[in-house]
Amino acid sequence: MKYTQAVGEKSTIKLSIAFTEQEWQDAINASYIKVRGKYSVPGFRKGKVPKPVLENYYGKGVFFEEALNLLYNNHYPEILRNEKDNFTAVGEPELDLEDMKAGEGVVIKAVVPVKPEVTIDAYTGLKIRKYEYNVTDADVEEESKKILASEAKDQEVDRACTLGDKVNLDFSGSVDGEKFPGGTAEEYDLVLGSGAFIKGFEEQVVGMKKGENRDITVRFPDDYQADNLKGKDAVFAIKVNKITEKVYPELTDEFVKAHAGAETVADYKKKVRERLERNMADRGRDETENSILETIAKGAKCVIPDAMIESEIDKLVRDFEMRLMYQGLKLDDYLSYMQMTLDQFRSQFKSQAEPRVLNQLVIDKIVSEKGFIAEESEIEAKIAEQAKSVDKTAEEYKKDMKPRQFEYIASDIVITKMFDFLKANNELYAEGAEPAVKKTAAKSETEKKTAAKKPAAAKKTADAKDGAEKKTTAKKPSAKKENKE
Fold first, then answer.
1. Which of 9, 59, 218, 242 is spaced 20 to 30 Å from 293 by Cα?
2. 454 vs 325, which has greater pLDDT?
């Protein structure tokens, strides 16, 4: 086997893999042994038909496809090992038969998607927005009351419903006078203000009383998942069957002793504040790191192969499917309800996948250039920290760890080092404290002073129905979470 390579389009490598006539015939013979049981010829037992008879009965090419697969599977991994310093494959190649001549063997063409080279304008000396969040007394009060929900009781009321009430409804929706799938239900419980229904629906239910009927009109968004409902006006006939409100107990010392493990309300609120402050610190750190990455990525250039985009979409779809499973739903059922094909569903994630891939490539580039690594002592220290959090010794903890967990810890250490470096070598500013652009002597005296533009904040979406709830930037893994095997 010999091969040559050339640079292809859109971050691909073109391999031309030539096999001798002997290698080709050996592959044909191996294919015959492997697949002969699939073919039958009158007068012979299945699996016992001689090779020449099968070739005469089904044609000379009967074993070609399997022979090519065998040659590829047996030799492609060797090529990747030989070329590991020259390129990194990021997906399966597209295979084709380039040449086949009697007595001269065959040539297979493989177009391999490879990890692209990234150029970055700069990743130090930049002005980058940082994010900080403070915990207020109001935040603590609101969070402290959430524990009361565990003992709250539903109480039916005889009044007009308001936001926060749970209403039991019958409803039937129609577009252009025709009912549509998923638009009709009886005795449906809806918490007003939850945002569970299309915008405008819940707001128009507010003020209705038990037994009241009302027709309301809402408009489906232009980007709604179901094509037949996009941008359409829908009329819902509604009847309120029942209205209930939550009745909460008092937050007292006795209550927190029984339900929160605190001695007093003051002690409980102190713990709540500490937890909120940790959460806000984590949020600020994550959003600042996303902001750093977004700003650097704006000056990054590379041609991303389609295989990397598709692979990232695969991950996003799997994540969404897992979230559905936690709710007791299957992806096929969800797609049926939303009247979407799998391809349409996957296409929703493309806008997220592209920047996520680019950001990961930027991370890899910076880590490689700066030579960040996870030292053995650092990995051991992180393992000891995690072991302590679950009341185990490091040795006990390591016995239960899988190889992937060690890799994850090492990756977390490297990413932390990278962001520590970027934070120390860029100018981070808080909202409202944007640094001014420095003027140079070469500029005209009449030139107006301009302020540096604020980098766009990392955008988040939270629409569980379209599966777009993840950030569009690569996120540093949490040290206490494991990668899925």
1. 9
2. 325
Residue 260 one-letter amino acid: A
pLDDT per position as a tens digit, 142-197: 999 999 988 999 999 999 999 999 999 999 999 999 998 888 999 999 999 998 88
Question: CA-to-CA distance for 349 and 268, rounded, in angstroms?
Answer: 42
Residue pair 167/243 in contact (Cβ under 8 Å)? The answer is yes
The mean predicted confidence, pLDDT, of the chain is: 87
Cβ-proximal residues to 408 (8 Å cutoff; 6+ apart), any chain: 477, 482, 483
Q: Return the H-helix or E-strand segment holding 247.
A: strand 233-247
**Average pLDDT, integer, range 246-267:** 93
Burial class (CB in 10 A: 0-12, 13-18, 19+), 31: buried
Contact partners, residue 239, CB within 8 Å, separation at least 6: 169, 170, 171, 211, 212, 213
Structure tokens given for 3: 């091969």
DSSP 8-state assignment for residue 36: G
Q: How much is the pLDDT for 437? A: 52
* Secondary element (H or E) of residue 421: helix 403-424
d(CA 4, CA 7): 11
- Please report which residue ranges of 371-402 form alpha helices under DSSP H: 376-389, 394-400
Sole residue written with tokens 């009351």: 145
Percentages (nearest 5) of helix, strand, coil residues in the chain: 45, 20, 35
Cβ contact 361:304 at 8 Å: yes
Query: In Å, how far are 103, 119, 309 from 303, measured between CA atoms?
Result: 41, 10, 11
Helix (H, G, I), strand (E, B) or coil at 124: coil
Residue type, 94: E
What average pLDDT score do residues 60-75 get?
A: 92
Judge whether residue 273 has pLDDT over 90: yes
Where residue 384 falls among pLDDT bands split at 50, 70, 90?
A: very high
DSSP string, 40-69: --TTS-TT---HHHHHHHH-GGGGHHHHHH
Identify which of 216, 258, 220, 222 has the alpha carbon closest to the alpha carbon of residue 238.
216
Distance, CA of 175 to CA of 236 (rounded, Å): 9
Residue 380, both tokens: 């051991």
Confidence of residue 435 (pLDDT cuts 50, 70, 90): low
CA distances from 416 to 166, 309, 474, 475 (A): 45, 25, 13, 11
- Does residue 463 have a pLDDT over 80? no
Q: What is the DSSP string of 86-115?
A: T--B-SPPEEEEEEEETTTEEEEEEEEEBP
Band (pLDDT 50/70/90 cuts) for residue 436 is low
Helix (H), strand (E) at residue 127: strand 127-129
